[in-house]
Structure formats: structure tokens, C-alpha cells
Amino acid sequence: MANTASAIKRVRSNERKRTRNRITRTNTRTAVRSAREGIASGQAEDARQATLAAISALDKAAVKGVIHKNNASRRKSRLMKQLAALDKK
Fold first, then answer.
1. Over the range 29-57, which residues count as b (16 or more CB within 10 Å of their CB) and which as e?
2. Where do the structural domains in the chain lie, given as residue ranges?
3. Which residues of the chain have pLDDT under 70?
């Protein structure tokens, strides 16, 4: 257990940040999953909307520091690549 006042405060602060990050990470994962399912379904317009929502969620998570900006960029690139392959069909 924390001994000093500053350590106790850090425990409280870290718990607040952990819950905020967890919510953001969960929403991001859900958006990416929806985009992948939309692409797999073959419905181009639904897939496009889901992909744009996922890209927005990834950008927000990167800005908040929940995931690294390069991680967000890589995931966005892969989603767009899959969407482009769907459009070609």
C-alpha cells in the first residue's frame, strides 16, 4: 500500500486515468470490429460508414494518448486497404 500522500494521490489519479482509457479503448475496438464486419459483409456503403467511424475513433484514441499515433495510423491504413479491395470487386 502507498505510504506517502503523493503516492496515495497517484493511486487515485491512475485509477481515474485507467477507467477513462479503458472506455476509449473499448469504444475503439468496437468501432474497428464493426468496420471489419461491414467490409466482410460486402455492403460497400455500410462498410464505408463503419470504416469512417472507426478511423475517427482511432484518431481520438491517439490524441488522448490511449494508443500510440503510429498504432492508430497502421490500423487506419489496414482498414482503408481492405475497404479499397472491397470497392474493386
1. eebbebbbebbeeeeeeebbebbebbbeb
2. 5-88
3. none
> In angstroms, what CA-CA distances link 54 with 10, 11, 66?
32, 32, 15
Q: pLDDT of 21-39, one tens digit each?
A: 999 999 999 999 999 999 9
The predicted pLDDT at position 21 comes to 97
Q: Which three cell numbers stand for residue 88?
A: 474493386
Topology adopted by domain 5-88: Methane Monooxygenase Hydroxylase; Chain G, domain 1 (1.20.58)
Q: Which H or E run includes 2?
A: none
pLDDT at 87: 86
DSSP per-residue letters across 10-65: HHHHHHHHHHHHHHHHHHHHHHHHHHHHHHHHT-HHHHHHHHHHHHHHHHHHHHHT
